[in-house]
């Protein structure tokens, strides 16, 4: 499996866990709002980033190159998103929209990297 795609899948699963824990332990009435934010914002991020990269003279490289020598620093992104899923357990009953937005940007970044590696 391509490493950038695996990175996007692991970040997506960590984002899903974050949304579920934020909806369960944070503010339960915001569960639908968190899902719409997470997947709507990530789709907008990918679409806008694609438009911006088309206008750039040299497209950026994927986060993980084809010839991986060591452990890539990009693996910090799923770990940070997964550790953010513990925030609702530490701070129960709070609105965690900002944490979800940051994790959504991380997810969009990894999805865009997987799209670049495929092209």
Commentary on this structure:
The protein is mainly alpha-helical and 119 residues long. It has one domain. It has five helices and no strands. It is globular. The mean pLDDT is 90.
List the main descriptive attributes of the protein structure presented here.
mainly alpha; 5 helices; globular; single chain; 119 residues
How are the SSEs placed, and which strands pair?
Layout: H1 3-26, H2 31-55, H3 76-84, H4 87-90, H5 97-118
Helix pairs in contact: 1-2, 1-3, 1-5, 2-5, 3-5
Low-confidence runs (pLDDT<50, min 5 residues)? none
Query: What structural class is derived from the secondary structure elements?
Result: mainly alpha
Major sheet size, sense and barrel closure:
none
* Radius of gyration using CA atoms only: 15 Å
Shape: globular
- What is the mean predicted local confidence, pLDDT? 90
**Range of strand content:** under 5%
Our count of helices gives 5
Total domain units: 1
How many β strands by DSSP?
Answer: 0
The percentage helix is: over 70%
Order of helices and strands: HHHHH
Straight-line N-to-C gap: 15 Å
């Amino acid at each position: 499996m391509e490493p950038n795609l695996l990175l996007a899948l692991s970040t997506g699963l960590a984002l899903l866990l974050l949304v579920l824990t934020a909806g369960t332990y944070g503010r339960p009435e915001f569960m639908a709002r968190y899902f719409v934010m997470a997947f709507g914002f990530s789709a907008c991020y990918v679409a806008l980033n694609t438009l911006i990269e088309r206008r750039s003279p040299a497209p950026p490289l994927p986060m993980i190159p084809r010839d991986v020598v060591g452990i890539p620093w990009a693996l910090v992104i799923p770990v940070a998103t997964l550790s953010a899923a513990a925030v609702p357990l530490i701070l129960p009953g709070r609105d965690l929209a900002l944490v979800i937005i940051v994790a959504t940007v991380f997810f969009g970044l990894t999805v865009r990297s997987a799209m670049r590696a495929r092209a």
